[in-house]
Protein 1
Amino acid sequence: MSDNTTSSNKSLLNDAGTRAIIFQVVLLAVVVFVSYYLFSNLQANLANQGISTGFEFLNQPAGFPILIHLIEYTEADSYGRAFIVALINTVVISLMGIILATIIGVVMGLARLSNNWLVARLATVYVETLRNIPLLLQMFFWYFAVLATLPIPKNSIIFGDFFLNKRGIYSPNPIFQDGFGIVIAGFVISIIASIALIIWAKRRQTITGLWFPAYWSSLGLIIVITLLALVVSGFPIEFDLPQKSRFNVKGGMVLPPEFVAVLVALSTYTGAFIAEIVRAGILSVNWGQTEAARSLGLKDSLTQRLIVLPQALRVIIPPLTSQFLNLAKNSSLGAAIAYPELVAVVMGTTLNQTGQAIENIGLCMLVYGTLSLTISIFMNWYNKKMSLIER
Amino acid sequence: MKSNVGKLISTAAVALTVSAGATAGTLDDVKAKGFIQCGVSQGVPGFSNADSNGNWTGIDVDACRAAAAAVFGDAQKVKFTPLSAKERFTALQSGEIDVLSRNTTWTYTRDTSLGLDFTTVNFYDGQGFMVRKDLGVNSALELDGATVCTEQGTTTELNMADFFRKNQLEYVPVVVQKADEALAAYASGRCDVFTTDKSGLAAHRSKLADSNAHVILDETISKEPLGPVVRHGDNQWKDIVTWAMFVQVNAEEMGISSKNVAKIKAETKDPGIKRLLGAEGNMGAQLNLSADWAYNVIAQVGNYGEVFERNVGPSTPVGLPRGINKLWTEGGVMYAPPVR
């Protein structure tokens, strides 16, 4: 009580809590004022120069074509839709790149630790070569150098209904007929059944100690039920086959070389970094842990899965997050080799047609910021889940 | 990536400039720094191209040189900024360059919504298609199903889309960031067709190793009036760039060239020519230039005919016929208002 009475006698300015609040308010006011000044100055300058502002352009017809679009898109669609198309292209290449890079990285990281001299050396050569050459150069290499060795469409390499040439990889395009719903239903049911099976097996093992090969049986379950559904519904799939035409191979499904080049470059480049992270993670687990596991009679595969990997993951995940973020941002280099991702479509064509640099660059920054934060949040959640629970 | 950084900096520059200083006074700025900063292409032979010593030549380069001759009496007082198609407008808007002279098509949208002004036309062009001879294509209408390479951020992209839509032809667009890489993709066989302005096609074809194996189709699918661009709102600077070009066209019409201009200035009795060359009156005062600015332009850069012949004419590797770029008196559309 006595403390309170003395402090109320002092000046309010000398109170630490009050002062902290005052400083915060002053700082906030400065930030708001500076932002407002910059923004209004920008508006005035743009108006003076007669440059259009605002986001109305997103509703106007774009008029330009986009090579790769996973949703319906024609030249008559709006800039807004072109933006969505580009956004999807960026997200798709980033996610596929992350998955591929992780697989490559884990395999190469383990290979570097292999007892087989040749395998370990080859993995070292891979890591040291790819992570020391600029990514843009690697993209040009895959796009121009590797592409140049493929034949022109007239002389396509043909495997059955698959065509390979400079214009891409052409494969039959499945067209789902009526009755395909049964197959989808079968697939979904088998997945639900598998999850139930895995939960049951885990519970039984906790209670009785008896082990059941739940993962392998689930895989079998999914395949068998889906195939059964296919047979029952009478294979309701038809294929649109690629065929040669005057200039290109027509029809079917195309994987354009731009997509392949960007994906390969991104995943092999980032994979080299991930390989080193994986190697470091595994080496960080004390050998004593493995010895202890063996002395308990655990098999080697179980030792790796239950003892080494969970501990290695704690070291691996934080730097892995950075690599994933790098990969997502590096996908913007695809613009250089005609992969129509966000930078190419929005900061390239759209910006040029509309002349609205600030809006378009703002949009791109917003997207990359959101994409990176999403990856970050997910990886932080995963990191927390994997971290050592101390008791 | 560099272009994006440049754009960010330009954007920041636009945000930070105090509004009063953003427009007007390009002439004063240029005089103060002692040279004109000129935005050109990254290499289109005949239009703007640097040789192995870093000397720029071309019809677009000469537009900047003419402005420098008018302002400083010295056509060499120009510095060049190579720009990709998609960087060019931002560079001009932000004040990074004083003139954009980069085979840029004058269109309604560009003139009205980019905060830029087109000055005049120094080359009348139209978009065309280039294909390999061995494809046996004779007309653009036979291009159904073809793959088309082009540079990003140009009117070409839109014209191409319009052409194929109008004629209901299918096509696969491959849009590459830089012209050189678009050409490389075409040369490597990624595309059947390379499309840009016809003058550009001729220029790019001259760069190909097997240039005789390629043919430019007859069809012209668009109007492409190319010319120098300045920032909107600085009328004095726009007048200088415009009239530096008009003077060259007038000179050709009057039979004045870089070779005979000194002689004509000394001997002529024609008051019109005297006015033009600064031997009588002071035509420079209105533009805040010296009286003999037009003389300097003609003496150092030449008349329009000379500029054309030297850079893109039949005797050069680009080898373009004069075509509609002839003077109006000879059946072309090159026409300049009188100097009076």
Protein 2
Amino acid sequence: MQWLDALIQGILLGGMYAQYALGMTLMFGVMRIVNIAHGDLMILLALVGISGSAMFGVGPFLVIVLLIPIGALLGWALQKGILNRVIGGDELPSLIATFGLSVALQNLMQQIWSADSRSLPGGGLESASVNVAGVYIGVLPLLVLATAVGLTGGLDAMLRFSPFGRALRAASVDSEAAAITGVNPRAVYATATAAAVAILGIAAVFQSLRATVSPADGPAQLIYAFEAVIIGGMGSVWGSFLGAIVLGIAQAIGFRADPGWGILMGHLVFLLVLAGRPQGLMSRNR
Amino acid sequence: MRWMVELSCYLAVAQMWNLLAGYGGLVSVGQQAFIGIAGYALFILSIRFGINPFVGVALAVIAPALVAVPTYALLHRLDGPYFAIGTWVIAESFRLLTTNMDFVNGGAGLTLRAMTQFSAQERAIGMTSWSAALILITVGGSYWLLRSRYGLALAAMRDNAIAAESQGVNVKRLRFLIYVAAAAGTGLAGAVYYMAQLRISPVAAYSPKWASVCIFIVMVGGIGSIEGVLIGALIYFASDRLFGEYGTTYLIVLGIITLLVAIFARGGVWGVVSRYVGVSIFSTRRIFARGDA
Amino acid sequence: MSEAVPILSTHGLVAGYGDFQALFGVDFEIAPGEIVALIGANGAGKSTFLRAIMGLLPSRRDMIRFDGAPIGGAPTHSMVGRGITMVPEGRRLFTGMTVEDNLRVAMDCARSSARRSESAPWTIERLHELFPILADKRGTPVERLSGGQQQMVAIARALLGQPRLLLCDELSLGLAPAVIRDIYRSLPLISATGTAMILVEQDVGLAKTTSHRLYCMLEGRMTLTGRSENLDQAAITDAYFGSHHAVA
């Protein structure tokens, strides 16, 4: 029973990680752009949301509505201002540029919000639970998981079937060939990064509802998102969802065995997948 | 004393990172794994086995080199950015592992009491010699390596790994050797650094701060050249002394400088200087046109 | 030439890669509906010329004119909007995507550009008539097609951009003679819709028989031009290798 509970908690935790991982799948798995500041952007959005909620007295759902356009704007600016200047050829410049951005963002947030942990009041939502066949499951984690499923399905469908998704896939394969076919690769990338960071806005609200956030948390979130993408298989949207669930389960079971081992167990599963199935669980093999 | 150890350690880890990223094309943000492993190896050798720390430093280097072999076996499947974050996961894993080991006093860390048996003068001599040896081994060793028969292969690999491969350079093997050598060199710096600090803890030793030190020094100084690293280390060290007290503001500025260098001046300060002056003190850098073609 | 208004012309076009200059003042023109072949040895600058027209290499605005308007160095994707598309060397298809998705990328772009609101001539159906094999392979990832089939997809993709000028870079490269014949047989049908074509071609005989006019390039300069049927072999050889060429 204890382990079943850990399994369920793990799946629910995986739902949260799936939300972080989505933006990374889009940027990392599809566009092959590395953004070390991924986690820091999420924390930034969370802190903006928390402050905004306190200042204007708005509830969590309104905060989501506000953070999505803010995230989109941030992502668009990130692509236009930084990433579009460093893509093409080798990855080192984008890695270094976003690494610098990450250091700057972390310290900027610490200066504005101090190093304290904060969270978003959910008006009772965070403590509500339902009894499913004898196991109490939190309403909020369920909502997180359901949102993750919805977002993953939506992103997958967009990539597969929409003109934008086709243009993005084409530009990722060969941006020059896409340009001679009439696609404006930079505009497509800017839109995709805007979408990726907008999704982080949603994740930010859920993260600050179910736990606390502090300015130094970004790198850990980046690593979880990254592990989910690699475990699942690069370029596969549902793969990264699966990867996130696997990671969540590993951490929850590790944590149940010994509280110090939770995150480490996640890393170990990641390394195991890397050793045994480096292409990921659901690779599209492209 | 202290500043000398610090400067030589920064210089050494940065040069090792330069070798990895600048020549091997292996961008790591997890070199702190080897700092921590070697540092802990030194402390364990002294505390558990009573080995003189000044001797222990030399032995401690074996640990990161050994760990680097399976680590590379896992990571080499990841390319570019994936490799970078993979190294970070490894470093985090070692941090968590160390934190969970009672054997090394968990998260609280260890103290190097054995150092108290030496007089201040003996310590000064020992630290100075090791700092000098550290620079000699890492910077001098890289210089020697780049001037040796491997130098041309390394330079070819830096400029274009695929072309180098087709010219008969065994890129895979060379990368593996660089990775292990850099692990040992970085580990040596870590052991020397924590010998001077007298205390080690997982949070400090496995801190990603080490990665930012490497990246800042090499990128701002100029990647792919030894002069660049020297310049970068001096700039970093000086600004750390002068502006370190400004804390977060200082780090924000460092971050933004790194960002701007990556966008506008890929060659760093040395890249700009050598383009206009056209000199090279350590002639290891072979200039090739790096056009769009 | 008698053609009064060229659809595209270049005037002293200079272009290159970084410090390396590849084109040294190229003058060129092509009339609507015309097929012009561009021949020359490897490294003569033929591909560079096409890439410069397409905006893949920077050039001065007034060095390239399309419909009389200066377009040199404009963004590549905007060239498609104006009516210039390209079949690139090596085909450059979107691997990992199906034939249909490859073609739809071009259709999506053509649809979003306002110029083609009325009666676009090229549709998927017409392309299936031109290259029947593409209908059978529509769901196949492009990397599983043969070289000739891939070339057909590349041509179809360029045509779905509804070009008035089509640039073709080495259509015959690496293909079997029978496949080359099939592909070249489709060119007059394309030309019949009023689309002008620049064919970069290694095979001089093929270039001569397919084109109305012919240009020859050597070391970044045009060395010969004229109506294809009027050019004799000696003149072409001279222009191709340079007048001081060693005896082959």
